Every structure is written in C-alpha cells, then in structure tokens.
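Page header: ASSEMBLY MODEL / two components / 530 residues total.
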Amino acid sequence: MPFSIVAQIAVSGALMGLVYALVAYGFQLTYATSKSINFGQGELVMVSAFVSLTLINTGLPYWAVVPLGLLFGALLGLVVERTAVRLALEQKSEGWILLSIIVGLFFFSAAENIWGRDDRPFPTPIPSAPIRILGVEVTGLEISVLVGVLAIMGIIEVFKRKTLMGKAFEAVSADSDAARLMGVSASHTVMLSYALSGLVAAVAGILVSPITTVGPTMASAMILKAFSVAVVAGLDSGFGVVLVGVVLGALEGLASLYIGSGWREAPGLVLLILALAVRPTGVFGKSVIRKV
Amino acid sequence: MLIVKDLHAGYGLSEVLVGTSLTVKAGTVVALIGANGAGKTTTMRAISGLITPTRGEVLLDGKPVQGLDASRVARLGLAHSPEGRKVFAPLSAEDNLLLGGFRWLPRYFGFRKKAAGDLARVYDLFPRLAERRHQLAGTLSGGEQQMLAIGRALMSRPKLMLLDEPSMGLAPVIVQEVFRTIRRLKAEGMTMLLVEQFARAALEVADHAYVMERGRIVVEGTPAELGRDERVLAAYLG
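Prediction written out in full:
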C-alpha cells in the first residue's frame, strides 16, 4: 500500500480525533469543579448541531449562527446542571450519573420527534475542496476542525490560568470548602463549568456536522471515543486529551484500513482497557504532591 | 463585631454544639480553648457557614449570617483560616494569596496590579512566602503552609479573622513565629477568634477567653481570671 494513502488516512483520522478530544475536554471542565460529568454530553453535541442547522435553514448566515449555536449549547449545559447534577451534588449522591443519562435520553427523543430520524447535510461556507499539504490532501473543513478545536481550548485554558475567576475554578477543584472560605461560590463555579462544557459540545457539533451530517445518532459513537480519550488521558490534562485524541483518531483510520472497516471502533476500546489496567489515573493524570 | 447566641450544630444526627454563646468585640483577640472533641472547630465551621447551624444566631457586625453559604459570609468580611490549613495544593503560593483577595479583587483582569499592595504586606509579614511565591502550595513545609493560610486570610482584608489551630503539627520554633505574627496583627488592630490546643500560648495573646466542654461554654473570663480558676488550671494549663 503506498505510503501516501496511509498518511492520508492517518491525518484524516487524527483530525477527527481532535473532536473526541474536544468532547473529552468538556468532561474535564465539569469534573474539575464538581467531580461529576455529563453522561448525556453526546446529546448536547447533537441537539446544538440540529438547532444550528435549523437557524441556518431560516436564512441566517453561517457566521451569525455559530455564536447563537454556542450560546444554545451553554444554555443546554446549564439545563443539565440544574436538572441532573445540582440536587445530586447537594445530597453528596452519585445520582448525577443516572440523571444525566436520563436527561440525555430525553434530548435524544425530543430530537427524533422534532427533527426526525434522517441524517441531513449541514451547509457551510467553508470550502470542502482538498488542499495538498506535504503530499497529504486536507479539506478546508478538516482545517476548520483543527483551528476551531485548538482555538476554543486555548481560550478556555487562558481563562483558567490568567484570570482570577479561572484560578477560583482550580481552587474549587482542589478544595471546594476552602474555596468557599475565600468567597468563591462553589455552586456558581459548577454552573459556569457546565455552561462552558455545553459550549464546547456545541463547538464540536458545529465543527463536525458538515463532515458527518446531522442526525439523532451522530454523536453516539463519538461520545464513546471521547470517554476513552478522557479515561486514557486522565480527567485533568487538557494537553493530554489532545494528544490521546489525535493518536486514537489516527489509529482508528489505520485499523479500518488494515484490518477492515468493522474494526474502526476497536482501538478506542483497546486503549481504554489498557489504560485502566496499567494506569487508572490516566497517562497524564497528575499525582498531587502533598506534604504534611 | 461577632455575637454567637445559643448555637446548635452538628454532623448528620449527632449534635456537637448544644448551645454555644460567645462574643468577640472589635479590635480584640478572643481565645477558644478546650479538649479535643469539645466542639471548637465545629463552632468555627458553624460561624463561617461551612456547616449550617440547626438553631441559634450568628451576628456579624449586627447582621445575622447563620444559614448563609460560607462564600456569602466570606464576602461579608469574615476570614476563616481552617483547621489543617487547607491551602490549594496544586496552585502556587502566590495564586493562593490572590484567591484570598477574591472578595474584593476584579474577577477577570487587572487583579495582580490591584493586589500588589496587599501582597507586599503579606510578604513583609512572611518573607519566606516571598521566596516561595512560585512554588506549588502542596510542596511547602507545614509551617510555610500555615503562614500561607494566614496570609491568604489577610488578603481578604477581613473585619474578623477566625484562626483554627494555627500551631497544629508545627515545630516549636515555628509555633513561636506564628504567635509572633498573631501578636503583630493584634497590635495592628485586627479582630481575631483563636482556637488553640496550646492554651497557655493562646491565653498570653488573648484579651478574653472561653473554655469549651462537650459542646458548650463552661467558663469564660480574662486570661488572668482563667489563670486563677482551679478547674481550668488543672485541665488545660497544668
């Protein structure tokens, strides 16, 4: 098999892997503040994509739809926080696991009823014609995924490191009682993290829709891969999810090329099992040093 | 400044505080002493809102604050340096101090510039922290973490400071340094409520003291009065 084809498939897979990384990053955001994650995150990706598509179909230009779609994603994140997470956390229960799955199922049924079960194309002004870079053909859409994922993660990382509110985020993550003693409202911080997580899901939906089309099940496979990425990379390393996402995406491409397209999902699960067996805190998980 | 009336609080079904009352006047240092398990830390946690009292009143500057979330109470000007120090281990020492100023600093940009004066004051009080400002708080020694916890409380420009066991687990020479700092803050007019195992050291710096047993105050008075009380002498100062 010529090398150029292998490289081509690995690069396309890696770019798709960035989307897994972005969804996994959304898990990290809420895990940091509340030690909880939204198991219905895939439905947020899908519903945000459908809402954006509906807005485009009303005739709004793409670039006006993007911020609206992101805002809608953030609102959905808040809905999840309010309905599935807040009460469970207040009672120190793990009920958010089941509740977030249920809210996700609700979004799924709602989407099927409102928009139907068919996959629909997502129009975009970004050119889909391939460009040759170093012998590999990359489409404008794929580049938009690369730029979009890195931009949104970069912005959120700058927020976390350079603003006092971002440091408060990390303080809640480290010790939420002590953070409350500083005047940081733990509940507002958790809300903010869910809004950001929803926004990130919407970014993933808008970036990936033109490539995969929009349908109720568009994110079901993606969310499994995002879980694998989050577990393998650990729930506290933004850099880790990008690296693991890219590697996983490339491996998926290669698996379907060499073994058969039915094996596309295998690398994610193999990586997940290996990671759990060898390093359950994640390859990039921090072990906090603590002196007493 | 702080009035606590008939406070009841506990964890789940077990009631730890059964009617604690105490008063801290502005500009004074009040010590709260007692054996392990008497309810000193629970009193502190119920005052600052980390736990919700089941009955009773907490007045901060005349304003009832019982039942408010700890973050609201903190924003009203009460700084609680908790038992076990509770520094933010994965953040740098300086970030810990900046978070201390969360209640008055701008939340997004320009907070470093605004905090510069207060930071300089804390570094002047604890030169060790200035040396270690970029080190992660979790890697500091116990004494340095205690300084950081006190410095972080000071950064909030508090009206009232609660210090819970500032000497816990520290070497004697560091304990002396901590008490030197407390005396210096007192000289600057800071109002403090101090919980201490080292009753003698606490009474030396306090204007007024309360002795707790089994969830209530059993004796109160000036340190001189407590020093003459035979029960207190036998139990805590022996």
